[in-house]
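#struct-help
A.M.: can someone run this one for me? Single chain, 124 residues.
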Amino acid sequence: MNDKALIARVIARGDQHAFATLVRQHQNGVRHFLRRLTVADHAQADDLAQEVFLRAYKSLKSFRAEASFSSWLHSIAYRSFLNERRKSHHHNEVAGDALPFMPGPSSTVDSDIMVERLMRHLSV
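D.P.: on it. Structure tokens below:
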């Protein structure tokens, strides 16, 4: 079944199995996107992904299908990430931390990604 048909079943009948299918089909993409945003903080990305799908379920009736369901989920994911970042930044300011917490790399690939991102901030 395609996304539109599954969404219609969720909206019309409250079909939780249809929504579970949507989650299974899109969770890897959303989690991967969030892992890139959170600099490979898998725990934070997974927490945000759960929040994304909860928000999507609650707001599914507002989905207009002007873009793909995947795009809609990714926009929710990005907004959720920004909201979490704002909360974290505010918390760091209150706690007096000058720099936000950056998790350590969990693999060589993650190390390379982190080094590349940090290098962009250095002047020539």
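A.M.: thanks! The longest helix spans residues 69-95.
D.P.: also worth noting: DSSP finds five helices and no strands in the chain.
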